[in-house]
Design a protein that fits this description.
heterodimer; A: Rossmann fold; Rossmann fold; four-stranded parallel sheet; 8 strands; 15% strand; B: alpha/beta; six-stranded parallel sheet; four-stranded mixed sheet
Chain lengths: 248, 465
C-alpha cells in the first residue's frame, strides 16, 4: 500500500559546499521530513552559472554536462538555491541549443529540477516543518528564484508553519540585492550600493533576521550589514530556519 | 561618433559619490508610476505579448513596411530621406536648412539626434538651435546631454534649474516648480513663434497611412511640428509599424510603462505638409529614416532589441541605473537597453563594461512592454566578448582553470577544502574577512568567512559507518 518514496538528488551548490555546509544538511533534513529519499551525488561541484554569466559558454557546457550525468538516476534534482535551480531549469536548454541531440535529456532534467521550498510545497506537499524560531523575520525574494521559477508564495507558506516565527514584509522584497555573482566582484562599489538599499529596507522592518533562499545573496547582504556595523540583524537561509537553527 | 565609452567604472564611482545626483535619483520613481499605471489592465500580459508580436512582425518584413511607408508618405507630400550613418542625418538636415534659408531651428525630443550630435553640427553651420522639451531645454542650457531617454533632466535638482534660469534668462531667482515652468513656457513661446524649422523625433512611422506618430506630454511636440514652415522628423528604421490598429495596441503599454499614464497628454499624427486650404501646418514635411547600425541587428540573435519602443521602463526599474544615473553609461541610451544597443551601435570593443555592468536581476525583462529579453541579450554580448578575446586575460584564465577543476571532483574537493580552511583562518574570531586584495567584493562590504570544512567532506564523513 505504501507509496514509493520520491528519490531526490540534492544539488548542494558550490557556495553551500564551500561556505555554509549547514544549509546542505538543513536541506537534507527537510527533504527527509517530507518523506523523500535523498541522494547526494558525491562528484558534484557547480552548475556552470559563473561561466555562463561571464560569457564562457564552453566552460559552462562542460560543467553542465557533468550535472546532467550526475542526476540521471534521480526522480528530481532539488537545490537550496533559486539561482542554481534557475540555471538548470531556465537556461540549460539555451546553453545546449547548438546540440539538438542533447535537447531531450536537457529538457528532462530541467523539468525535474526544483528550488528547495518550491519542491517541498508544490511537489512533496510538505505539511509540517521541524524548525522553531522565536522572533520576527523578513523575507528577501532572490531574483532568479522569483523571476525565473516563480518562487514567492512557497517559502512564505513554509515559514508560516515555523512555530514562534512572525513575518514582517519589507517594502520591496523583490528588489535585487546587487549580488549576481561576478558582478559583485567586478563592480563591487555599485553592487555594495545596491545592497545598501536592501539593508535599509530590512532595517526598517525591525525584524530580528532576514531570511532568503540563495547563499550568494546571503553573503552579500550579511557582508554589507556587517560593514554598516549592524551585527544585530541575523541572515539565514530559509532551509536553516525551516529545519531549525540550533540543529547540527 | 563611435568613440569608445571607456571609463564606466570611474564615472560610476563619481556618480555614486555625487551627493546632488544621489538625492535626485532617490526622488526619481517612475517605476512606482508604472506600477500604478498598469494596475487597471487586467490583461497586461496579453497586451505585452501582442505588442511584442506586432514589433516582431514589423521587423520580420522591415523592407516591405518601410517601402510602404515611403510610398504612402510621399503620396501625401512628405519627403522621405534615408540616413545610413549618423553623418548622413546631419548632412540631410543641414542641406534642408540651407536650401530653405532657415536660420533658427526649434526641436522637440529626439534621441536619434543625440546619436549624431546634431545640435553641435547645426551650430557649427551657424544655425541657432533651441530644445523645447522642458527637460531637454534644461539640459541644453546646462551644456549637457540627456541622462534618461524620456526624463532627460532627471539628474537635475530644482535648485540647479533655478540657477540655470537666472543665468540664461536674466530673471529673478525662483524655486517654485510651477513658477519655474511658467518662466520656461514664456521663453519657449517666443522660440516657437520665431522658429523656422522644427525638428522632432518619431515614436512610430505608420506604413498604411505614411504618418508620423508622436507621443508627448508638454505640447511642444505639436508646436514644433506645426508652427515652423519646415518640419523634419528623425527616427530609426525600426520604428515602422504596419497599421494604426497596431500602434493603438502598442500605445496602451507604451505610456503606462513610461510614466504610468493610460495615454499621454498629446498623441499626434502628422501626415504630410500643409495642403491647399489648410490653415496651418508646415510648408514642407521631411522624415529622415536612420539606420546607423540598426539593420545590422536584423536576422541576428540581437534582433529582439529592435522591438524597443523607448519607454524607459527598463532603466526606471534597474538597480544599477537607479544608483548611477544615465551619464555613467557614457553614450546616448542608458540602462539595460543602452547596455544592449550601445555595443551593437558603436562596437562591442567600444563598450566593454556595459553588458557586464548589470546584475541580471531581470526586473527590466519583466517590465519591458515588448518583452525584450534584456538580460539574455546582455549575456549574449558577454559571450561575444569572450569569443572575440575582449575580456581581460586574468578573467579568461581564471574561468578556464575554474572550469577545469570543476570537471574534476578530486581536484575540486582538494581546492575547496584548502579554500574553506584558509577562509576560516583569515576570518579569525569574528568569522569575517574584511579585505580581499584585488577583489571588488570588499570595496563596500565584508565577506562572511567559510565554516572551515566543505559540505562534501562533512557529508562523506557522516555517511561513513
Amino acid at each position: 500500500m505504501s507509496e514509493q518514496k520520491l528519490r531526490v538528488g540534492l544539488f548542494v551548490t558550490c557556495l553551500v559546499d564551500l561556505m555554509r555546509p549547514r544549509i546542505g544538511f538543513s536541506a537534507i533534513k527537510l527533504l527527509e521530513s517530507a518523506d523523500c529519499e535523498v541522494v547526494v551525488p558525491s562528484s558534484q561541484t557547480c552548475c556552470g552559472q559563473p561561466a555562463y554569466n561571464s560569457g564562457d559558454r564552453k566552460s559552462a557546457q562542460a560543467v553542465a554536462r557533468k550535472v546532467i550525468a550526475e542526476f540521471r538516476g534521480c526522480d528530481y534534482l532539488v537545490s537550496p538555491s533559486g539561482s542554481c535551480a534557475g540555471m538548470i531549469r531556465a537556461h540549460y536548454a539555451e546553453l545546449f541549443s547548438e546540440f539538438p541531440e542533447q535537447r531531450a535529456e536537457v529538457d528532462r532534467l530541467a523539468a525535474r529540477t526544483h528550488e528547495l521550498t518550491s519542491f517541498l510545497v508544490d511537489v512533496a506537499g510538505m505539511a509540517a516543518v521541524p524548525g522553531t524560531f522565536n522572533g520576527a523575520v523578513t523575507y528577501h525574494d532572490c531574483c532568479s528564484g522569483l523571476r525565473e521559477l516563480g518562487v514567492k508564495a512557497q517559502p512564505r507558506a513554509l515559514l508560516g508553519r515555523v512555530a514562534g516565527l512572525s513575518l514582517n514584509e519589507m517594502g520591496t522584497p523583490e528588489y535585487c540585492c546587487g549580488f549576481d555573482g561576478t558582478f559583485a566582484v567586478k563592480y563591487g562599489e555599485i553592487s555594495a550600493r545596491i545592497a545598501d538599499r536592501k539593508c535599509d529596507d530590512i532595517a526598517a522592518t525591525g525584524a530580528d533576521a532576514v531570511v532568503l533562499g540563495d547563499l550568494g545573496c546571503m553573503l552579500n547582504i550579511e557582508g554589507r550589514l556587517q560593514r554598516r556595523g549592524d551585527s544585530k540583524t541575523k541572515v539565514y537561509h530559509v532551509a536553516e530556519v525551516l529545519a531549525g537553527i540550533d540543529d547540527d | 561618433m563611435n568613440a569608445p565609452v571607456s571609463g564606466f567604472k570611474a564615472r560610476a564611482h563619481d556618480k555614486l559619490n555625487d551627493a546632488k545626483l544621489q538625492r535626485a535619483m532617490k526622488n526619481f520613481n517612475l517605476a512606482a508610476a508604472r506600477t500604478r499605471g498598469v494596475a487597471d489592465l487586467e490583461n497586461l500580459e496579453d497586451i505585452r505579448t501582442a505588442a511584442a508580436s506586432i514589433r516582431d512582425h514589423s521587423l520580420a518584413r522591415l523592407d516591405l513596411w518601410l517601402e510602404r511607408f515611403e510610398q504612402e508618405a510621399t503620396r501625401r507630400g512628405t519627403q522621405v530621406h534615408w540616413a545610413e550613418t549618423h553623418e548622413d542625418i546631419n548632412r540631410i538636415v543641414i542641406d534642408i536648412a540651407r536650401r530653405t534659408g532657415v536660420r533658427k531651428i526649434i526641436k522637440s525630443k529626439s534621441m536619434v539626434s543625440e546619436e549624431s550630435h546634431l545640435n553641435a553640427a547645426l551650430e557649427a553651420e551657424g544655425l541657432e538651435v533651441v530644445e523645447t522639451d522642458l527637460g531637454e531645454y534644461i539640459v541644453q542650457l546646462a551644456g549637457e546631454t540627456p541622462s534618461h531617454i524620456i526624463a532627460p533632466a532627471i539628474h537635475k535638482s530644482r535648485d540647479d534649474v533655478a540657477d540655470l534660469f537666472v543665468k540664461h534668462h536674466g530673471t529673478p531667482r525662483k524655486t517654485d516648480i510651477g513658477e519655474l515652468t511658467m518662466e520656461a513656457r514664456k521663453f519657449l513661446r517666443e522660440h516657437f513663434m520665431s522658429g523656422e524649422m522644427g525638428i522632432s523625433g518619431g515614436n512610430f512611422l505608420i506604413a498604411e497611412t505614411g504618418s508620423l506618430f508622436l507621443v508627448t506630454n508638454e505640447g511642444n511636440g505639436r508646436m514644433t511640428t506645426t508652427l515652423p514652415r519646415i518640419h523634419v522628423a528623425i527616427t530609426g528604421v525600426e520604428k515602422v509599424v504596419p497599421t494604426l490598429e497596431d500602434v493603438s495596441c502598442i500605445l496602451r503599454v507604451l505610456t503606462r510603462s513610461a510614466t504610468g499614464q493610460s495615454i499621454s497628454n498629446y498623441v499626434t499624427l502628422n501626415t504630410g505638409p500643409k495642403r491647399p486650404g489648410d490653415t496651418d501646418g508646415p510648408e514642407e514635411m521631411h522624415v529622415i529614416i536612420v539606420d546607423a547600425g540598426r539593420t545590422g541587428l536584423l536576422g541576428t540573435d540581437m534582433q529582439e532589441a529592435l522591438r524597443c519602443i523607448r519607454c524607459g521602463a527598463c532603466m526606471n526599474h534597474c538597480p544599477v541605473y537607479q544608483n548611477i544615473g544615465g551619464h555613467a553609461y557614457g553614450w546616448v541610451y542608458p540602462g539595460p537597453i543602452g547596455s544592449v544597443l550601445t555595443p551593437n551601435f558603436i562596437g562591442l570593443e567600444n563598450a566593454i563594461d556595459l553588458p557586464n555592468a548589470a546584475t541580471l536581476c531581470n526586473q527590466c525583462g519583466v517590465v519591458c512592454p515588448v518583452k525584450i529579453p534584456l538580460p539574455e541579450l546582455m549575456r549574449k554580448l558577454r559571450e561575444r566578448q569572450v569569443d572575440r578575446g575582449l575580456r581581460p586575460w586574468q578573467e579568461r584564465v581564471g574561468l578556464r582553470l575554474w572550469a577545469w577543476a570543476a570537471q574534476r571532483p578530486g581536484v575540486y574537493a582538494l581546492l575547496t577544502r584548502l579554500a574553506a580552511r584558509a577562509g576560516k583562518f583569515f576570518g579569525g574570531a569574528g568569522r569575517t574577512i574584511h579585505r580581499l586584495p584585488g577583489n571588488g567584493w570588499t570595496e563596500g562590504r565584508d565577506l562572511p568567512a567559510p565554516a572551515g570544512k566543505t559540505f562534501r567532506e562533512l557529508y562523506a564523513s557522516r555517511k561513513r559507518p
